[in-house]
């Protein structure tokens, strides 16, 4: 039985763990909250209390075939210490959940070869991808929605939404989970992927639709003369993994 360890059983990590258990994997899952340990256990996920900012023993957690890092933590020193522990473990395959926010808004389509900003996420990507002790696949997810994350709940209390004529880059939770399944299934490690719906409505279209659909009033947009945008291309992930997006119409959420 293949073992998968998920560092961070939150919005993405927990439903991902549940889906892997259903597929027959033995799943180890971590949380920073003692209250959630029993919840993970009840979902047939072997629970671990792990906070990478604390220098604790995670030897047992790292006895795994695939390590998925799905935490929002961005401290470089803590990741350097974590990587040193991975180096001493049996781990040979890593999936790191990153973000398309590493790309600047240059009014063009951004691929995996496009220029990036020197953000903490990019620095962590480099630390993992440049390590010769294991192979890391980095997934740069676009804006995340699904589950308890609904775009209608963003920009509350009349807060003005910037760049109404720019474009949205979003991906649904279901697609996030299935893409990770595909990477494990196809043993596709040592790669860098953008993951984003092919549909890029304007921010005005998208947030107006989301708010009205949920019964909220029409949102307020900033009046901006200079338009700044980017469109994230997922061509590579669709080609390499032969992946077809489940939610590829963002105006039908």
From TrEMBL:
Alphabetized InterPro entries for the sequence: NAD(P)-bd_dom_sf (IPR036291), NAD(P)-dependent_oxidoreduct (IPR051783)
Listed PANTHER family: NAD(P)-BINDING DOMAIN-CONTAINING PROTEIN-RELATED (PTHR48079:SF6), PROTEIN YEEZ (PTHR48079)
Protein name: dTDP-glucose 4,6-dehydratase
UniProt organism field: Polaribacter marinivivus
């Amino acid at each position: 039985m293949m073992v998968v360890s998920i560092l961070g059983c939150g919005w993405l990590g927990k439903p991902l763990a549940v889906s892997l258990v259903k597929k027959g994997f033995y799943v180890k899952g971590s949380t920073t909250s003692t209250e959630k340990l029993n919840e993970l256990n009840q979902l047939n996920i072997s629970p671990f209390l792990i906070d990478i900012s604390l220098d604790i023993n995670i030897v047992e957690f790292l006895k795994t075939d695939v390590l998925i890092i799905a935490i929002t933590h961005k401290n470089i020193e803590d990741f350097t210490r974590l990587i040193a522990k991975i180096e001493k473990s049996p781990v040979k395959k890593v999936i790191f959940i990153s973000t398309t926010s590493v790309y600047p808004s240059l009014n063009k389509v951004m691929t995996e070869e496009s220029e990036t900003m020197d953000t903490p996420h990019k620095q962590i990507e480099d630390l993992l991808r440049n390590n010769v002790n294991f192979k890391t696949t980095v997934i740069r997810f676009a804006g995340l929605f699904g589950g308890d994350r609904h775009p209608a709940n963003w920009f509350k209390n009349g807060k003005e939404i910037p760049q109404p004529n720019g474009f949205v880059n979003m991906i649904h939770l279901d697609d996030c989970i299935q893409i990770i399944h595909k990477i494990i299934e196809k043993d596709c490690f040592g790669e860098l992927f953008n993951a984003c719906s092919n549909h890029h409505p304007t921010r005005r279209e998208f947030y107006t639709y989301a708010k009205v659909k949920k019964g909220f009033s029409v949102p307020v947009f900033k009046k901006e003369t200079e338009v700044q945008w980017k469109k994230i291309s997922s061509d590579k992930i669709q080609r390499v993994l032969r992946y077809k997006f489940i939610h590829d119409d963002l105006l039908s959420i």
